[in-house]
Known about the structure:
Elements: E1 3-9, H1 14-18, H2 31-46, E2 53-57, H3 60-74, E3 81-83, H4 120-135, E4 142-147, H5 149-158, E5 175-181, E6 184-191, E7 209-211, E8 239-242, H6 247-260
Parallel strand pairs: 1-4, 2-3, 2-4
Antiparallel strand pairs: 1-5, 5-6, 7-8
Helix pairs in contact: 2-3, 4-5
Amino acid sequence: xxxxxxxxxxxxxxxxxxxxxxxxxxxxxxxxxxxxxxxxxxxxxxxxxxxxxxxxxxxxxxxxxxxxxxxxxxxxxxxxxxxxxxxxxxxxxxxxxxxxxxxxxxxxxxxxxxxxxxxxxxxxxxxxxxxxxxxxxxxxxxxxxxxxxxxxxxxxxxxxxxxxxxxxxxxxxxxxxxxxxxxxxxxxxxxxxxxxxxxxxxxxxxxxxxxxxxxxxxxxxxxxxxxxxxxxxxxxxxxxxxxxxxxxxxxxxxxxxxxxxxxxxxxxxxxxxxxxxxxxxxxxxxxxxxxxxxxxxxxx
Length: 300
């Protein structure tokens, strides 16, 4: 019989607000992130969800989120196991840096390897292996996992041909629902609690659409100038504009355009400019002062 897996992303963090790359490094939940976790727990209760077991990434932001959510759902935090295999992608030298520094090219999945980070396929394989080990355990019919946005969307992409629902939103505390059977994961649903009372969440480089939200905010993984103003949904965060271009693809288009116009794709500087003519020699006026004597004065 198929088992059910719920993969929840952590609540908003300080680095999310500051627009910093956050993978294996960590930062605390904001007040809004705490509220998002509690609202997600209330959504679990509203849907009548129960979990046999719970697991979390070792990152503190996930530990806090799962504790807050299960306490809101069941009256007390649910016991859970911390696992390193459920961690976010490792972004290498970009960890803790401003996200606008990451100029991705067409080979986005390999981008961080040169900087000491993880290949996307390797991270997804690590995450999937951990989930299979968890779901194959006895008495694991309904399992809650708290993890991260990047690894969760990569995992969805791995199994998207089996998915019954498309990704239409990308939000903190977004929860994916999977059916698991004999090593196969089928995404059957995804939901996020009504976050209308909290500030909005804007799209990341991983999103294929723009979520609706209450007001402009900094994006989760984009420079501040890339954030798309979104609008509020009365019941839950939902897609308001399908087909938005991910940030990494936008940079690909910009770099390609620069190449076509004769500009360097690496330095964004023109390579077709006309050489400057040599300057005329400068004639310096002859000084009227007498040249200093080279003779040595006699010693006293």
